[in-house]
Every structure is written in C-alpha cells, then in structure tokens.
Design goal:
CATH class: Alpha Beta
CATH topology: Aminopeptidase
Bound molecules: coenzyme A
Oligomer: single chain
Distance between the termini: 23 Å
Strand order of the largest sheet: 1-2-3-4-5
Strand content: 25-35%
Helix content: 25-40%
Number of domains: 1
Largest sheet: 5 strands, antiparallel
Number of helices: 6
C-alpha cells in the first residue's frame, strides 16, 4: 500500500534513500543541529548517513516512521515529520524538523497535524501521542502548542538531553482536529 498524506500545501510520504542528501543538508545547518545533535553542533556526513539509514530501518522494523515533507507547489523536499518510536522511547512520538530556509511558513504544524491524524487512524488503541522537546527549544514548543499538545511535566533523558514530554490525548485531539 502506498502511504501518502496530503495537506493544503504539502505532500507527506515515507522517506526513501533518494532523500538522504537533502536530509544531510538539513541536519548540517547549525540552527537545526543545535536541537538535534548530541554535541549541539552539526555532525559529519558519515554519521548523518548512518542516522538516515536507521530511519529507513525504522520503517522496516515498525511499519511506520518519518515522512518526507514536500512542497506541493515546487516539489521541493522541505523536511521530515512523522511518527517515531525507537526502542526505549517513552511513547509514540510525532517529531518534526524543517530545513532552515523554510522555517516560519507553518510547515511543521501543517505536516504534524496530518501526521497525528494518520497515526491515530493507524493505531486505534493509541491513547496519546507525544513529542519530546528541549526546554529551550521555543520554536518546537510553538509547533506543539499549534497542534494541540500540552507539556505533561514528564521528562525523558536521551544523549544527555533532558527533554520535556508534550502530549495530546486521542479523544481531545480528534474532537479539535479530527
Ligand atoms: C521547530 C521547527 C520544526 C519549526 O518549524 P516551522 O515550520 O518553522 O514552524 P512554524 O512556522 O510554525 O514556526 C514555529 C516557530 O518558529 C519561530 N520562527 C518562525 N520563523 C522563524 C525564522 N525564520 N527564524 C527563526 N525562528 C522562526 C517562531 O517562534 C514560530 O512560532 P510562532 O509562529 O508562534 O511565532 C523548526 O524550527 C526546526 O526544524 N528546528 C530545528 C529542529 C528542531 O528543533 N526540531 C524539533 C525537535 S523537538
């Protein structure tokens, strides 16, 4: 089955090997790396290649994973948003990262709403969806608020990061966005 989510301005579809270079370019931007790399600095392309391979592997092992986000108008790759739950994760997460030139267009919340809808639909027993966010990541917190998530007060530690767990409860979320 082909997975494809369409929103007003975006197409979401599973990551493919062809997206690797665009993904590396996004991750090597210092402003993106500040929130997504253990060192807070851009990782070298070899590490990013391995990371990308693990994202493709996540699809294989879980049957879901990051979506590539493309602009409908231009067909351009603008980021990755998607459901994600590697081993040891505190829940099924909706995550988001947008390439620096496309920040501020509301793409992350638009793609995340499409993703959360898709995820609740795929997993009827899933009672909540979470997002793990650094306390200093104001941009990401803004996205969480726009998509109806609230800070739970729970924390998750990973790579030396202490992340706040934000979440949306299924029933409330579907009443608002479904
Ligand atoms: C967080 C992120 C995905 C937001 O994506 P986006 O598509 O720009 O989302 P929005 O357009 O809704 O903007 C979110 C907030 O970013 C800030 N922002 C917007 N444009 C910006 C710009 N050009 N430069 C810096 N910050 C900007 C604003 O505070 C905005 O909130 P507001 O609309 O309430 O003012 C993006 O900033 C990103 O990829 N950051 C790096 C990776 C990351 O932090 N991922 C999440 C890990 S939890």
């Amino acid at each position: 089955m082909t997975i494809r989510i369409e929103t007003e301005r975006l197409i979401l579809r599973p990551l493919t090997p062809e997206d690797c270079e665009a993904h590396i370019a996004m991750m090597q931007d210092p402003d993106v790396a500040a929130s997504l790399s253990a060192s807070r600095k851009p990782q070298d392309r070899h590490d990013l290649w391995r990371q990308f391979a693990s994202y493709l592997g996540h699809w294989e092992m879980r049957g879901f994973g990051w979506f590539s986000v493309e602009e409908k108008e231009t067909g351009q790759w603008v980021g990755r948003v998607g459901p994600w739950m590697p081993d040891g994760w505190p829940g099924l997460e909706c995550g988001w990262s947008i390439a620096r030139p496309h920040w501020g267009k509301g793409y992350a919340p638009e793609a995340a709403i499409g993703t959360v809808k898709w995820t609740f639909d795929q997993f009827p027993d899933l009672s909540r969806i979470i997002s793990n966010i650094l306390p200093e990541n104001a941009n990401s917190q803004a996205v969480a608020r726009k998509i109806g998530e609230e800070k739970t007060g729970e924390m998750f530690e990973f790579w030396g990061f202490k992340l706040d767990i934000w979440a949306a409860e299924r029933k409330d979320w579907l009443a608002r966005f479904g």
